[in-house]
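Same chain as my last thread, 281 residues:
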Amino acid sequence: MPELAEVEFSRRQWNPGIGKKILRLALHPKTRIFRDTFPARLRRNLLHQSLTASRSHGKRLFFSFGPGSKSNLQHLEIHLGMAGRLECRPPKHTPAKHDHFVLYQKNQTLVFNDYRQFGRLLLYEGHSAPWSNLPPEPHAPAFTQKHLRAILTRHPKLPIKALLLDQSAFPGVGNWMADEILWRARLRPNIPAAQIDANQLLKQLRFVCKGALKYVADQPAKHPSNKLAHHTEPPTWGRPPKSWLFQHRWSDDLSCPRCHTPLVREKLRARTACFCPKCQL
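reply #2:
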């Protein structure tokens, strides 16, 4: 599932449409992405409105629509699910089989494609900021050492890898980012949260979040055929350098980039954890 940086990359794909009016919509109304919002409601509320702004928060995407007045905006929330992707296509784009939500503008077409249909849409009418009460992202100034220590204290027995995947505590952190954070902090995935040094963990949280945004969201890959690409990964995402665990956790040699010890993959609460048995104590 896309994580913080992949979601931010996806948000930017629709940015060419900001300030432009929606001229028509093309929807596949029977697909599962509409399970939380009726297609007719989307068509009624978005048609002839302008896309005014976009933002991402963790694994969630928000797009604002309206005539321009901040007091009269509607907000569309998009979850990409396992394989959803946002694209900007030419204005006369013909929807493909899995282009389930398509917004036509004068100079471009904004597309939500989801072949597995685990993504979803939610529309907030007359809501000033549906993201205002969401927990702070790990790289945000509000995510302080005190804030992190409170999270660890609330879940003292929970394995740290499982806690990092809790979106109510660490929005945007997914499986590969959690493994990267723990590898850099030299912590085993199954260590109880009560035993974690908050300062040590926060340092790596911020490093990985900011690094992911830099390498994944800001620098699309020049060689999308790279064999390390995950099967659900859109080919235009960038990737961290080879000094990161990311580049080795699914590779054939499966060796630690720090000490070259064979990496271990184990199931932890139904999720695969990848770690170095030598570096991570």
